[in-house]
Amino acid sequence: MKNKLKKIIVSTIAASLIGTSATAYAWTYEVKSGDTFWKISQRYGVSLDKLMESNNATENTILYVGQKLTIPDNNDYFYYEVKSGDTPYLISEKFGISLENLLSLNNLNQYSIIYPGDKLKIPASNKSTANITNSTPSTFIPEQPRTYITYKEHTVQPGDNFWTLSLKYGVPVKELLKVNNADTNTRLYVGDTVTIPVHNVPEMERAGEKYGEYLDWWNGAQYVIPIGATIKVIDFYTGKSFMAKRTTGASHADVEALTKEDTEKLKDIWGGNFSWVRRPVIVEYNGRKIAASASGMPHAGNDSDRGGYYTSWRSGDYGPGINLDYVKNNGMNGHFDIHFLNSQRHKDGKVDEKHQENVKIAAGIR
């Protein structure tokens, strides 16, 4: 989508941001092989007569590769130059145009990537409705909340072990073992008392209604969205959503779609198929919205076999091993990943930079 158009603005800097009826816009365009006045007029939505008049041309004028033409403004729309941090969704919010109309007007779709310097058409009627304050990501990064821990006791029942208790109370099993001075070989007996840590995580300030809390995984998000939580995953760019369940995951959230219908909704967001592409999302649970980033590729599981036990085949070329698929008959083999601020990959313990960029987008932070 990048082109060699250069914007010539006869206006003040403020007018260039939101536009006014007194602002005059024009563009220079470098002629390419195969171009004609007709093709250029159609490409930029201006009348052929207006284009030729702006360039002192006639029907006999010949175009040459490399020649510079002036592209006049169309009274029906104007061009907006994409800036760092912009997304189609944020631009649609800025100018009060629906995301669908913005994408259609610019021959884009929900998977298109825009870059600083790109030019997007905006209906002229939306020039004066630009909402600069509410649509621009914030440079303010809120402080992490002051969390605190309280404790309660659990009396061991038949079938209890540290793993089942970690699932029951949403506490990582390693933390549960440490608090109880236990290790993986420690056995529990009916009537034993197990200490359960309870993490209290105050709600953070958000950049705006459409953004999520910029909540650290280690001190907050993993407790606010515990293992076993049924969550709503909202795609930041399109607003489409589906229901899912956090089933496992220590360094980030391992998540499974709740039903076959939810799996189809996930695939629709990612272009109709499962995909490793990372997208900014909002995770909604228990009245809170948390900024996150998700990839849409299930892995490490077998939907037709029992979860948590050895299986001879696992999705994503993971081979035989523990079956990390707990939600059955949902049209998905295994789980997909959701990352939060400072979460890490399970395979190497490293922070995934692309996921972290998306978390910032979902939090409204540049």
From TrEMBL:
<feature type="domain" description="LysM">
    <location>
        <begin position="152"/>
        <end position="196"/>
    </location>
</feature>
<feature type="domain" description="LysM">
    <location>
        <begin position="27"/>
        <end position="71"/>
    </location>
</feature>
<feature type="domain" description="LysM">
    <location>
        <begin position="78"/>
        <end position="122"/>
    </location>
</feature>
<dbReference type="Pfam" id="PF01476">
    <property type="entry name" value="LysM"/>
</dbReference>
<keyword id="KW-0732">Signal</keyword>
<dbReference type="InterPro" id="IPR036779">
    <property type="entry name" value="LysM_dom_sf"/>
</dbReference>
<dbReference type="InterPro" id="IPR018392">
    <property type="entry name" value="LysM"/>
</dbReference>
<dbReference type="GO" id="GO:0008932">
    <property type="term" value="F:lytic endotransglycosylase activity"/>
</dbReference>
<feature type="signal peptide">
    <location>
        <begin position="1"/>
        <end position="26"/>
    </location>
</feature>
<protein>
    <submittedName>
        <fullName>Peptidoglycan-binding protein LysM</fullName>
    </submittedName>
</protein>
